[in-house]
Write a structure and sequence with these properties.
Helices cover 22% and strands 37% of the residues. It has one domain: Hotdog Thioesterase (Thiol Ester Dehydrase, Chain A). The mean pLDDT is 94. It has 140 residues and is an alpha+beta fold.
């Protein structure tokens, strides 16, 4: 496998097709075997109890795996999540950005299957793990 998009191309693509998430996420690194994405944690991402909310962590997992898949197939806006299973393992730090490491484990013609690990920036232990499957448009 080889990369079909650069960080700059993915950033421009996300700004165009998902302007609502434009300022929340940053692609830090991009390689065939791993994509790293930062979520800039703001007060709107927090829930009572001083932790990052589950929906915010799901968004980070989902965006990160979308980027990992697009990096390998090219700009296909209609590539969509068909499955996500997320395990929350420990409480993330409330005022640290979150980092997600995404891997594509199998890329087929119509499905992309992989996983992600989520971390509070600067803390070694993961806070969540997710398995994802994406459906890829058939005529690419």
């Amino acid at each position: 496998m080889e990369l079909k998009m650069t960080i700059a191309e993915i950033t421009v693509f996300l700004e165009k097709v998902f302007p609502q998430i434009d300022k929340d996420f940053e692609v830090i690194s991009l390689a065939v075997d791993e994509v790293v994405v930062r979520m800039r944690v703001q007060d709107r991402h927090l829930r009572p109890g001083g932790t990052v909310s589950g929906p915010s962590m799901f968004a980070l997992a989902d965006v990160s795996y979308y980027v990992a898949t697009l990096a390998l197939i090219g700009p296909e806006a209609l590539t969509v999540t068909t499955n996500c299973s997320i395990d929350f393992m420990r409480k993330p730090a409330a005022h640290r950005d979150m980092i997600c490491k995404a891997r594509v484990l199998k890329l087929g013609r119509t499905l992309s299957v992989g996983d992600v690990m989520l971390y509070s920036e600067g803390i070694e232990e993961p806070v969540a793990h997710a398995n994802l499957t994406y459906s890829i448009p058939p005529n690419r």
